[in-house]
Amino acid sequence: MNQQNKKILYYQCYSGISGDMNLGALVDLGVPAGHLIGELNKLGLSNVAISFEKGSANAIYGTNATVTVTHPTYIARKLKDIHAVIDDSELDANVKKTARSIFRVLAEA
Prior knowledge:
Elements: H1 19-28, H2 33-41, E1 48-57, E2 60-69, H3 79-87, H4 93-108
């Protein structure tokens, strides 16, 4: 993608945003749900799935994203373990680089 076609999304989450809220908002902005599901599948995590459903609460409409773990087992992963999942995935090289950077910042925090 060249610079002219690049789009930037700025978040102003003064009270935070959860992962499922972020995924639902991306679908509402036009990212195809199938694309997000496909990208998740590239991680090779066979026990994790995402589903999307339109809904409303108190006259606020949006998309609810549900992340399901079919064999819930708590695994404490270190940064190197998360990087290994990313590196071993089928994700695009630029996506891997960005994901590694994001998790590095989270680990430092």
